[in-house]
Amino acid sequence: xxxxxxxxxxxxxxxxxxxxxxxxxxxxxxxxxxxxxxxxxxxxxxxxxxxxxxxxxxxxxxxxxxxxxxxxxxxxxxxxxxxxxxxxxxxxxxxxxxxxxxxxxxxxxxxxxxxxxxxxxxxxxxxxxxxxxxxxxxxxxxxxxxxxxxxxxxxxxxxxxxxxxxxxxxxxxxxxxxxxxxxxxxxxxxxxxxxxxxxxxxxxxxxxxxxxxxxxxxxxxxxxxxxxxxxxxxxxxxxxxxxxxxxxxxxxxxxxxxxxxxxxxxxxxxxxxxxxxxxxxxxxxxxxxxxxxxxxxxxxxxxxxxxxxxxxxxxxxxxxxxxxxxxxxxxxxxxxxxxxxxxxxxxxxxxxxxxxxxxxxxxxxxxxxxxxxxxxxxxxxxxxxxxxxxxxxxxxxxxxxxxxxxxxxxxxxxxxxxxxxxxxxxxxxxxxxxxxxxxxxxxxxxxxxxxxxxxxxxxxxxxxxxxxxxxxxxxxxxxxxxxxxxxxxxxxxxxxxxxxxxxxxxxxxxxxxxxxxxxxxxxxxxxxxxxxxxxxxxxxxxxxxxxxxxxxxxxxxxxxxxxxxxxxxxxxxxxxxxxxxxxxxxxxxxxxxxxxxxxxxxxxxxxxxxxxxxxxxxxxxxxxxxxxxxxxxx
Amino acid sequence: xxxxxxxxxxxxxxxxxxxxxxxxxxxxxxxxxxxxxxxxxxxxxxxxxxxxxxxxxxxxxxxxxxxxxxxxxxxxxxxx
Lengths: 634, 80
Prior knowledge:
- The structure holds two protein chains of two kinds.
- By secondary structure, chain A is α/β, with parallel strands linked by helices.
- Chain A has 25 helices and seven strands.
- Chain A folds into three domains: 216 residues, P-loop containing nucleotide triphosphate hydrolases (Rossmann fold, 3-Layer(aba) Sandwich), CATH 3.40.50.300; 156 residues, no CATH class; 159 residues, no CATH class.
- In chain A, 60% of the residues lie in helices and 7% in strands.
- In chain A, strands 2-3-4-1-5-6-7 form a seven-stranded mixed sheet, sandwiched between helices.
- In chain A, helix 10 packs across helix 13.
- By secondary structure, chain B is mostly helical.
- Chain B is built from four helices and no strands.
- The longest helix of chain B has 13 residues.
- Chain B is globular, with a radius of gyration of 16 Å.
- Chain B starts with 8 loop residues before the first helix and ends in a 23-residue tail after the last helix.
- In chain B, 26% of the residues are buried.
- The C terminus of chain B is likely disordered.
- Classes of the chains: A alpha/beta, B mainly alpha.
- Chains A and B meet through helix 4 and helix 8 of A and helix 1 and helix 3 of B.
């Protein structure tokens, strides 16, 4: 095969090796096509000059390994959003001989053709892949790739990306296009386009569509009939709420036992085996065993315990997305989400967040715009995940025994209020970077279909690998650091890993930090240590309280509750219930856990993660202080 | 790609919508499919050439005389 783009890549950067660039509107099956072409041979890279992630892989084409890049979905190359800018820059900066393979949705042809017109104008060799022909036929549109190819003046073939067997039709036109010589670009480089160009592109779309066989009267499809129910205001909303409730249950009831099981397995049989192994090697006992078991193994246990939860949530979201329901859910929730500057699709990560924040941050990837992903990612930590419930239950039972349920319900309402207020604030704080601050939800609803299991599997596997590689490393390193702080003696002449927590670097640090919590009625080192441990995971906070009070945390909690009541009565100046409320509000608003921070860093980048965590701490402190100061007057 | 037929359907559609026609009526007047008209209007909105009436209504008051507010839901008039 003659392939200038495969042999001598003159471009640099992440797309230098890509000889084929997949371009298309959102929801046209581009990623399904990418997975079908590349199989498992793919990895994630950042688009040139951005933090927008795109996948690159290799396609075995006519005996050669051809690089393929899956660019973000875009309606236009107008570069008014970060995603569109990423696509425009990729087309501008990638290997000049690389072919643009444009996926055209037969059920929304004018929209696809408008993007195709702009891609053709870049001067790159272009090949079109017409999809959804069967669905278009059901709607009375008699499409055929040959007529379309003749009208558009580029090679266009028809295939269903979900059926790998039909994709061989792509080989010949792509090979021919790879061998073609690039013509000079006819449009300006990346940036807003002119009305003249837009009018010219639409005129071309009009001519192409006019030359196609005229559409027969549209028949009512199964999708139309189902949508009459699912998009009906009185039925659609309850169905949507039921789906969201199902997602929440998945994160708590179904995944909860799996998480506990893996954590117990890591902390029990695995830890015992490792301890025995170290003893057999003659390096057991002492600080080294503490480091391996309490630091590294605990960290790995946390990472692995998240895998079943993530796999379950990604599968559920993948099925919802692949079936076409995700887009409907977005339409139903759009009005409520628009109030806080997000579109309807943001409701999914926010609902998932009430189960667990870690998959919720990952789920922000369903949002089409980088700014919306950022805002939603910053809001997710304010959704009250199920782990915080352990803190609420301890404090509510100890301080509000007659009305614990009402107090906990109030905390969930506070969580919703924080998300709404945070959304309004982040709308002002997060720069638009040229993206429209508000825009209509332009969603081309895909027809209902069975999710493609192979695509689903690739997507889940890639996301789990990403979590293990990036977030996993952060979690293990941070837990080792926490272990080290608790193992290093600062006073008392103890040995490493033999020191009581009060005399460790961690305990001394907690004592130093305690006065900062005095305005919240919580100026005590036991509380400071528990909140610092809660930074690792909220479940750990209760265990840390038990440990610092030297109370057996496996009991019914009575002894711990008694000690806690005594402490808060002292630190609050006689208003322990006000201090308990401040404790719970602080636990709600500050950083959920280390895994969430690691996931934020992966999805939002280091800078916004630092800002997000900083804002959470400030909000938690201010809110806690307000609650305490007001509640003690009541 | 060859030069557009003048005057462009895009400009004609914007003019038709600007004169108060609905999307369907404007599409029929210009002679393009309603689906293509919607794509054109989405692009016009992205370029800042058109604004959705639904979004404008949020800025309308009962006393507003702006023609943009004429199509908004009836607003309760404040007591005089």
